[in-house]
Structures are given as C-alpha cells and as structure tokens.
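Handover notes (outgoing to incoming on-call)

Open items:
1. histidine kinase: sequence verified, structure written out, both below. Nothing else pending on this one.
2. Nothing else urgent.
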Amino acid sequence: MSLSLYQRIALSLTLAFSVILYLSFLWSSQLQQSTQLESEQRLHLGLAEHLVTDNPLLAEGVYDYDGLKNLFHTLMMLGPSFEFYYLDPNGKVLTYSAEPGKVKRELVNVAPIQSLLSNQVELPVLGDDPRNLEKQKIFSASPVYKEGVLQGYLYMIIGGEIHDSIVKSVQDSHSLKDVSIVIVASLGVLLVLLLGLFKSFTAPLNKMATAIKAIDQNNLSQVEIDFSVSKDSNNEINVLASAFNSLIKQVQSQLVQLENIDEHRRVLLADLSHDLRTPLANLQGYIETLSIHGGKLSEQERQKFVDISMRNANNLKRLIDQIFELAYLDGGQVTVHHEPFPLADLLFDVTAKFELNATKKGVRLEVEPLVANYLVFADIGKLERVLTNLIENAIRHTQENGVITLSVNMLKEQKNQLRIDIRDTGTGINRNEIAHIFDARYRASNAQEDKSTHVGLGLAISQKLVALLNSELKVESELGKGTCFSFSLPLANS
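histidine kinase structure tokens:
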C-alpha cells in the first residue's frame, strides 16, 4: 500500500522521535549508572583493606565466626549501604550477617576479586552479589593472611539491598527531571531532522517556483528544469514536479511548432499572393484592353480577349477556392457525414468526369476490377474530392500513352478494410522528395507544366481529407516509372 506524503512524514518523525528518545534515555541511564558505580567503588576501594588491618579478628588470622558475624552486623548498622562477607580462598561464603534465606549464593567467583586487587583493570569492576543469583555489584575486597598464607577474603558489597531501596525512591523523585532533559535533547535533534527533511521535500517546489517566475517574465523558451525524479514515485511532490516538467517541455515544444507554423504560413501567404497576382494581372490587362480599344478590335479579336479573361478568372477562382478549402480544413471545423454507398459507382463517375481531358492528352483511365460490389462507410463528398485531386494530379504528370489505374483490393492484414490505389505510369517522384510532396505549394523538381495555373495545394488538401476519413494517404513512387497513392476505407457491414 502506497503512503501519502503526510503519512510518510508523520511515520518518519514518529519513528525518529521514538528511537532518539529511547537511545537518549538508555545512554543517559547507562552513563549515569556507570559514573556512579565507578565513583562509589573508587571512594570505597580501600575500605575492606582498612577493616582487615584494623580489626584484631581478621588481622591475626584467628577466626571467631560468631564474633565476626556480630562485627559484620555492627558495621552494617553503621553503614547500611554495605554488606560484609567472609570468603575462603576459593570464594565459598563462610560467614555473614543477614536474616535467614537472604543469601542465595554459597560460592562467589574470585576472578573479579583478583582483578580488582591487581589494580590493572578499569573501574567499575562488578562481582557476584550473594543475595541475588543474577545480579552483580561493585565491591571492595581485601585478602586475609596468616603467617603469609592466604586464609580468605573480606568481601564487601557496596550498595546493598537497603542502599538500593533508598536510591530507587530517590531516583523516582528525580525521574521527571531526567525525562525532561531527555525530551529537550530529543526535540533539539528532532528540529534539525525536520529542517533536513523539509528541505529535501521542498527542493522540487523551489525549482518550480523559479521556473514559474521565469515563465511570468515571458522567458518560457529559456526555462530549463531538471528535477531528477522518477515518474513512478509515490511522493506527491515528486509526481507534481515530474508532471510540471513534462508540461513545460510540452508547452515549449508546442511553442516551437507554433513558431514554425507561423513562419510557414508567412511564406505560404507570400507565395500565394504571387500566384494570385499573375492571373489577376492578366485579367486586369485584357479587360483594360477591351475597355480602351474595344471599338477598334474585330469580333474575333474581341472574343479571343474575352476567352482569355474568362480563363484567368476561372484560374483565379480555382486558386481562391483551394486556399479557402485548406484554411477550412486547418481550422478543424469540418463536418464529416459517414454513410454507406457503393464504391464502384463513385469510381466510375469520377473517371467519367476526367475521361475527356485524359483522352485529349492520350492517357487511358482504368478501373480494376470492373465488377466490385463493395459497400463502404465514408463521407462520399470528401472521398470524391480526394479522388478528383489525385486523378487530376496523375493526369498532369503522365505522358501520352500512359495509363492511370484505380484499383480496389481487400486488405489481408485487416479484415473488412478496402485499399484504394490511384496508380499512374507518369514521371514519378525523386526518393528524397517524397517526404515533402504533401507540403503546401511544394513542387517536385520534375513536375510537369501545363497551361493551367496550379497553386500546389491539391495533395495537402487530399491528405487532410483522407485523415478525416480515419485513414492515411500513403505514396510509393519510382522516378521515371510512375507513382501510386493509396488509402483504406472500412466496409459498410464492418
């Protein structure tokens, strides 16, 4: 389960606070206890030796165990924080002063005693507590000799049961103070941790703020952001930063495209103005001639000038119609009306419309197959416009005795789809120019000229119309052998 940013922060802070609080309390307790034990053991380190030296029972090595027990009792009354035991050389407890059942150990490990007496270890040194099988406590010890022979050890526990009970009650009264110190220390560390965490969390936000300021200063194209974050991250700030970065890059890309389109339209407008100026100037010139010298011209000359003027007017109208059609398609406000209709009827109607022009140029138009009972689902008006443009373009670029074929085939890789090919045996297109033929006003280097004026928008219009039919206009061509334009249409029953 993915955690939100707030949940991760809350969980991180809670865990960090708990760990810091626990470690601080543990460290403080251990340090305090270790320091206290060391100081107490160091303070009473020589106490057992003084007792052995000053007490006749121990100094002479003659052991009156009952008397020694009474001595221990008296000493414990004077110093309630001490417990006294007399051990043999192997650590066996020989005598002590305590209530029956208090002493649990019969044997004390002498290794810590020997280590303490050697003065080669760091304090505190802990030894076995005879009253507890699991605890160890600080102690003071001294060997007892008789005539140079070790008789045993005076083993004195520092901080016995009475001492422990009193210390515990005092510590309880000071526990609130200790906890307060730990809390203050923990909060200080927590503050530093919070500053680091929020700095790392807000770094992407700072970068976004800088980017937004740059955008506000109209420097969008110069905004560069590198958040170095993963899109798959569950951190909401990282996701926001990544989305913002993608948005900026997309807007920058669209801005570059708009600048290119604007430049392209300016060039196109200049070229179209030139194309429109030619038939307009011709039309104006012949009309002025008729107006000024009309009375001096013969009927045949007058009719010739009128025919030329009409031809220029028709060319001008045709250019303007194509310009408006392309602008209409670029605006994206075209209404598409799909309906089922027989494709063969449309193909034969369109070829019949161009039969006369093709015959005059010596070009043959063919439809394959002659019998094709296909019902397609498309916009018949826009499909007719595409076929008209492509056939007209094919006639223009096909020499005498050439053939233009309109063929229909079922697509093997896509069921219920028809492929329509408009293939000619004309001049073809250079391979490195194929990628540009759908650009407005682009003319191939081997384009054929005729008496009509062509603004070069037919293929650009056809490409956009085919896209409205949910297809793609493709081209295959070989220089000197011909060109084939193709696109697909769905069957009406698909």
